[in-house]
Amino acid sequence: MGLFKKKRIKIPVILITGYLGSGKTTLLNELLHQEKRKVALVVNDMGEINVDAKLINEESIGNVDTRMVEMSNGCICCTLRDEFMQEVEALSKIEGLQAIFVEASGISEPSSIAEAFLAYEELTEKPGFFISSIVTVVDADRIYTEFLDEINEAAGTAPDEDEDPDIINLVMDQIEFCNTIILNKCDLLTVDKISKVREAIRRIQPEAEIIESIKGKVAAERIISENKFDYEKAMNSSIIQKALKRSEEGGTCDEEYGITSFVFEDKRPFDRDLFTAFIEEEFPEEIIRTKGYAWFADDPVHVQLIETAGRNASITEYSNWVAAFDEADKEDVFANYPEVKDDWDEKYGDRLNQIVFIGRGYSKEAIRATLNKCLLETAV
């Protein structure tokens, strides 16, 4: 007794990255639906409100013994880097844990996250975890419609050193620094167009496995590995990575790419027609991604999930507002989840419009003014 200590098993970390709206949360839900081991989740969202964490299906989480950590209002590749590593270390100590899934924010650089792991290993004598896979989710439709020409051009010529990095650099960084690419939303393109997207990706990432997918449906065993991620191989495999000069000063994602976010919140309901017209006819081109929840005056029962990514937009019923429950069910929710009462409104209950806007060069004031015109003062 005491002479033999139980060896601590290092926990594999599967990092899921990808540009805004590519389908990272959808993929994670799919993996959790398949997963039967004891796992932990870290979900990062650059906005104040971690909408992605709320979109992790309770049904998916219910399939496994899991714990989820939400990290908001910053990126784990820069502003939340130290806090992120501390969270991963704490999770790795959970008894019986077998894997940690990390969903990075849409503007995180996977190479910077990997560097954080390397630095932590150097500073820590015996870290309890290691990166096993870096998976980049790519929106095939958006790559074809918005980025194809730029990727092909950038792959053929080195960027001007005096140019400020733009979003295409971020997209390329995410594609080039990984060992698996999930080419998602393939149902939106023809076979010929998918082939062109694959060819463009291969020009900047010749070695990573490319898995075509629809709605994030991928066999878990294809991306989960017990082997350690090869940092040097990823750095050396990319044509673009060799040409780009990384800034020695670092800086946050907002500073480097000019991407910012803000949250629109209001308890009053939207007029459905006015809000739909805003999405379809007046939506600012400067907005890259929108996600959040809303409710309409003509439907006080259902939570509406609002999502936009590039030219794609959707408004779908997601669940029911607690305020729409009958009194018995409502009291049951209050008893089991007392935090629901914290923001309870005497008139609207938990009904709330809470939408995160992410983009570059937009007018926050103009968007707020337009949305305010879509609100109604009607009683429930």
Describe this protein's structure.
The protein has 380 residues and is α/β, with parallel strands linked by helices. The chain folds into 2 domains: 11-253, P-loop containing nucleotide triphosphate hydrolases (Rossmann fold, 3-Layer(aba) Sandwich), CATH 3.40.50; 259-373, 2-Layer Sandwich (Hypothetical Protein Yjia, Chain: A,domain 2). It has 14 helices and 12 strands. It has a 7-stranded parallel β-sheet with strand order 3-2-4-1-5-6-7, with helices on both faces. Strands 8-12-9-10-11 form a 5-stranded antiparallel β-sheet. Helix 6 crosses helix 8 (191-204). The chain is globular.
Report a brief summary of the structure.
The chain is α/β, with parallel strands linked by helices and 380 residues long. The chain has two domains: 11-253, P-loop containing nucleotide triphosphate hydrolases (Rossmann fold), CATH 3.40.50; 259-373, CobW-like, C-terminal domain (Hypothetical Protein Yjia, Chain: A,domain 2, 2-Layer Sandwich), CATH 3.30.1220.10. The chain is built from 14 helices and twelve strands.
